[in-house]
Amino acid sequence: MAPTVVAVIASACAANYLTLSAWLPARLLGVVGLAAACIIRGLPSHSPHACFGAANRTTVARGVLVAFLATLLFEQADQRVQFVALSVAALAATLDAVDGWLARRTGMSSAFGARFDMETDAVFILVLSVWAWRLGKAGPWVIAAGLLRYAFVLAAMLVPALRGDLPFSFRRKSIAAVQMIALLVVIAPFVPASDSAPIAALALLALATSFGIDIRWLLRRPARP
For residue 195, what pLDDT is reported? Predict the structure, then answer.
């Protein structure tokens, strides 16, 4: 609740300072409300703990930042807005390294927390990729980086073999982190499109390769009775 209140107040101040739409706080509340509905729906069946935990609260704060970044997409992206977007995205990326550490340190790791973290990462990458395209830092193909996760989910609905659980992979976590950092560099106002497009392309190639490795592992896994 607290991160949402702070974000709404901050968005109202940003709208006034940056001369943005007065609807910015309302749009932010709408996005956060939709995300909260998804969290509440999944919480009872996935969390074994009595309280939400510091790690999940950190992920909530990160999610609110991503929601704010998404609402800024509807505004005129002058250089000031671009720097605000970059700062918000950098803070969200930094918090991504905190929630997992908190879960392990407090002994409150859970399947819900892991899924919550993963889905927040997926939305974050999608929003960053749309920013990269909107700013003209890469072609529309860059949005594929944000859609790969959802294409995989759709494929799993059609192919039963893809519905299995994947083992923990340091490679998967590392490439997701590299994707975020690469997109942060891409959307930076001081990075020209001549440099940002190749960076985005290499990061997308790495992400697609990682998905390909996981899909191959799932398809080659022995069928269970």
Answer: 93
